[in-house]
Amino acid sequence: MMSAIKLVVFDLDGTLLDSVPDLALAADQAVQELGYPAVTEEQVRDYVGNGADILIGRSLSQSINVDPSLSPELLAKARVLFDDFYKASGHKLSHLYPAVHQTLDTLVANGITVALLTNKPSKFVPELLEQHKLDKYFKHVLGGDAFEKRKPDPIALHWLMEQEQVSADQVLMVGDSKNDILAARNAGCHAFGLTYGYNHGEPIANAKPDFVADIVSDVLKAVGIDA
Fold first, then answer.
1. Which of 18, 48, 82, 129 is deepest in the core (most CB within 10 A)?
2. Residue 1 confidence (pLDDT) above 60
3. Strand, helix or coil at 29?
4. What is the CATH number of domain 20-89?
5. Count of Cβ atoms closer than 10 Å to residue 174 Cβ
6. Residue positions in the annotated binding site for Mg(2+)?
7. Distance set, CA 116 to CA 96, 180, 185 (Å)
8. Do 7-16+97-223 and 20-89 show the same overall fold?
9. pLDDT, tens digit (0-9, with 9 covering 90-100), for 137-150
10. What's the pLDDT at 227?
11. How far, in Å, are 37, 77, 85, 191, 197 from residue 109 at the CA level?
């Protein structure tokens, strides 16, 4: 338990929202449009977490390691197709994980500032937040292109600390991937890992967060709130 926390920063995909069904559909449509083999939802669960460019590269490669022989032109074309298919999906298959609203409501009611920090392209984020009634909670919303580097780089967390005038030990980063845990470590913040998201097939405990939980509402206990 850490009662000094003033800012809780959440990842989005795999932490608050299970968006893989829609991401997988878009990735599959994009690679097949280019004559590459289909990808499954199961594969895409391991491919997400490092931004859309890496996701599409992995989908074309059918591997967590992007094939270096894929041309920049092909990758760029695939990314445009992916964006178009993802937008067209209307994100109908995505859904919130359990206890998300309750957790965010309780944090805000207890005077804790919440922010969103995702590697997802910024242009897709507002619509998703609105669709799932999450837009009212976050004081700051930062997508994967908000800065020149994305998680695990700490640049966005440093910016948030500066905006909120808080120190690293007053910040908790909540995520499902080692990129979230590494971003927290690189910024000197506390790290909270969720077991159910997308972490390239590895247990989140391997990344050694300060807390490991199966449900997001355990964040409340971590910051000293009796839910």
1. 48
2. no
3. helix
4. 1.10.150
5. 27
6. 11, 13, 176
7. 15, 12, 17
8. no
9. 999 999 999 999 99
10. 63
11. 48, 45, 38, 22, 26
- Residues near 35 by Cβ (< 8 Å), separated by ≥ 6? none
Q: Which residues are catalytic?
A: 11
CATH for 7-16+97-223 is 3.40.50.1000
Report the distance separating Cα 95 and Cα 198, nearest Å.
15
How many residues does this entry show for the chain? 227
| Structural domain boundaries in the chain | 7-16+97-223, 20-89
CA–CA gap between residue 184 and residue 223 (Å, rounded): 16
Q: Cα dist. 49→19, 63, 151, 162 in Å?
A: 11, 14, 9, 25
Helix (H, G, I), strand (E, B) or coil at 215: coil
Query: Helix-strand-coil percent breakdown of the chain, rounded to 5?
Result: 45, 15, 45
pLDDT tens-digit series, residues 61-95: 999 999 999 999 999 999 999 999 999 999 999 99
The binding site comprises: 11, 13, 176
Task: Please provide the DSSP assignment of 99-168 as one string.
Answer: THHHHHHHHHHTT-EEEEE-SS-GGGHHHHHHHTT-TTT-SEEE-TTSSSS-TTSSHHHHHHHHHHT--G
Structure tokens at 24: 């997988």
Task: Give, as one character, the DSSP assignment of residue 69.
Answer: T
d(CA 166, CA 106): 20
Residue reference for tokens 């590459």: 36
User: Which pLDDT score, from 0 to 100, does residue 201 have?
Assistant: 86
| pTM listed for this prediction | 0.93
